[in-house]
Amino acid sequence: MAANRTSIHGQWSSRWIFILAATGSAVGLGNIWRFPYETAENGGGAFVLVYLVCIALVGLPVLMAETMIGRRGRQSPINSMKSLAEEEQCSRYWQLVGIFGVAAGFLILTFYSVVAGWTLSYVFRALSGVFSHSSVAQIQNMFAALTSDPLRLLAWHTIFMAMTIVVIARGVKGGLEQAVRFLMPVLFALVLVLVCYSLTMPGLSQAIAYLFKPDFSQINPGTILSGLGHAFFTLSLGMGAIMAYGAYLPEHISIPRASLTIAALDTCVALLAGIAIFPIMFSYGLQPHEAGAGLIFKVLPIAFGKMPMGNIIGLLFFVLLMFAAWTSAISLMEPATAWLVERKGLTRVRAAAYTGGLAWVLGIGSLLSLNLWSKVKLFGMTFFGLVEYLSVNIMLPLGGLLIAVFAGWFMSRASTSDELNLTGYGYKAWKLGVRFIAPLGVLLIMLHTLFGIF
Ligand code: TRP
User: Fold this and answer.
1) Containing domain of residue 358, as a range?
2) Over the stretch 303-314, which tens digit does the pLDDT of each residue have?
3) How many domains, the chain?
4) pTM for this entry
5) Contact 384, 369 (CB under 8 A)
6) Which among 233, 341, 355, 427 could disulfide-bond with 422, CB atoms 3.0 to 4.6 Å apart, if both were Cys?
């Protein structure tokens, strides 16, 4: 039974536009901000290894499954899950996976916008040329000065959320496509420029060893859960962002090939960002695990201050990091917006304003937990820490698990093989991934870390 729906939200113009949009979603703060500091906090190379294994074994099959469900359903994640569950004669409770996903995306958007706001602020700092006449200590203090000032954080958070609302309000062709078309290639070029600079740094060999020589004693359930959570985060999986983008994918495009390209590009950017950032860090005697979430903001400006044309490169770097965050934030806002349009018949403009407005309000909690509320702890974490932990380490893996189970066990062979256009070994490998490896992997790791079982 072929599903012949069309999306009311529009369609991507070509295969490359979809790849750019999905890569735009995938490549974001996760690659350039979160990956380096997660690596630093979870034992360096051990984390990188776990992360790569998770991308290949769990990330890729789930990426294909999400795109496939999206294209077959052709609606927001909630309604796509609902329609497919009906079509495959499964319980209508499967739409809870969509609801859960939209909620997770929402939570991520709240703190994502706060961090993207830091990036905006650094764009203006770079523009002022301040890095070239500041000492290492002054640069580190700049970051503390920003995060301890709630009003400044609020201003940047507000501007970034407004930028995201504007793109979403303009729709798939008029907003999303235009945004990703030029930004992504330039971002890639800039990462390469920074890598070239880092290749000349004395800390290079130490950095390469740090990233690629795993100390196996550092691999523990905590590292594995973080690696898994990050694999979902960086590929934008587990909450329906890719499902929403898949809904706009034209019929003839190969999902396996597009998924491979997206996963490969995303992984390359993360590793290259690591190769760009860590040598600078080691060259200046900074210890990765001390920097925390401020890592790139405290480290890269030092290099920008010293390198030839550093002000320009620094400016470009933060502009593009901001763009990368922007193309990702869009994908966090799209599922909820599309759902409001479908369900409540709102215009896109209104739906985007409601979604963004609510995320903006919740984001204020994260922003305050960096300063006024820094002593307020829930389960030993700040508000920001808790929202991040809940959404990234719990909701994304759980959402990914359920999506994999649905695609692997509840959708018929006819519909999955038809939609993926896969047969033979390729299909078997995918099925193995979504039926066993992804669900069992996620389940075992979560049972262990959360309840101490095994
Ligand atoms: N993948 C993005 C990043 O690496 C973040 C992101 C966008 C995301 N959409 C998502 C994460 C959906 C999880 C789910 O920065």
Assistant:
1) 2-451
2) 888 877 888 878
3) 1
4) 0.90
5) yes
6) 427
